[in-house]
Amino acid sequence: MYSDTNPVFADSIFETLPEDKKMWCNLRNDDIYMLRWGDPDYVREYILNIPHAKTPGFYIGSDGYVFGRECVSKNPDQPAQMELDKNWYNYLLWGKLAFDPREQNVFFKNKIKNKFNLDENSAEAIYSAWKSASEIIPLVTKFHWHDWDFQWHVESCTGREGFYTVEDFIENPTMEGTDLINIADYCELKLKNEKISSAATTPPAAADKLGKKAEYALEILDTLPNNQGQNELTKTIEDIRAMAYLGFYYSHKIKGAINLCFHQKNDSQQKKYYKKSIAHLKKALSNWKNYARIMSSNYRSPLLARIGRIDWVKLNKKVESDIEIVSDQQKE
């Protein structure tokens, strides 16, 4: 659901439908279980890409978690908040834009303003930071693509088999039907001096975009005045900040993987690529620690149906092991 606004793997399913039949779409959130997400432009584009001639509409599936009471917050409301209330903005986007995708974004800015009792400038800032940070997860998921929910949890860089290392990021494919090139193919093309289509998004470009989205979100958040103890606003800002640090983490992890790939394939400049890879992976670790600090401060370690137990602080060691992977290859 939070990968690409026009997932081509759905086309073959619709093609099997008889001409006189329609099929409801199940939009499955296999991507975001903890963080509050909100990007109206993504939702609008997604809805407009649904083949309306072949479906009467959609419902949002709850594979992997339940739309009950929020149960992992370390600072819960009393009684515990309903998931639909915690993610009010997310469901507002899908509901309102499904009803009328022509609705302008000023509508959502006003909803944020009224929800948190903000002035115009603060509402605009929250809207912009939230949108920018929310663009991070779809881009990461389609860059490091997995077909099944048990294979990928973007909020922890894990799957059922465990943590995805810097080497996994080299070989893993990008999402079918997107303009993204995976790292292994990119390195091969560059080393052979072969032309890369101008329409393609290269791994460095994807990594740079992640970094810019994260930087923009954090810069905006840093301009906000004290929220005067509004608990829900505080939690929302913390989630936006966490998504931004997650974006920085993946940005530097991808850059570390690019340089590791060149290090493995280019004997003449191995030392240069080794140093760059280490430098980026150290930055990735620093940003992961910021992310883990926020997540562990706000959320108890969740037990996810598809992935298992997630502990962001314990994952620090796994993130650090990426640096060791590169170091060990230099020793060889």
- The radius of gyration computed from the alpha-carbon positions, rounded to a whole number of angstroms, is 21 Å
The major sheet is characterized as: 2 strands, parallel
Name the helix and strand elements from N-terminus to C-terminus, one letter apiece: HEHEHHHHHEEHHHHHEEH
As residue ranges, the low-confidence spans are none
Q: Notable features of this structure?
A:
55% helix; two-stranded parallel ribbon; two-stranded antiparallel sheet; 332 residues; globular; 6 strands; 5% strand; mainly alpha
Describe what you observe in this structure.
With 332 residues, the chain is mostly helical. The chain has one domain (8-331). The chain is 55% helix and 5% strand. The protein has 13 helices and 6 strands. The strands form 3 sheets. The protein has a two-stranded parallel ribbon. A two-stranded antiparallel ribbon has the order 3-4. It is globular. The termini are far apart. The mean pLDDT is 94.
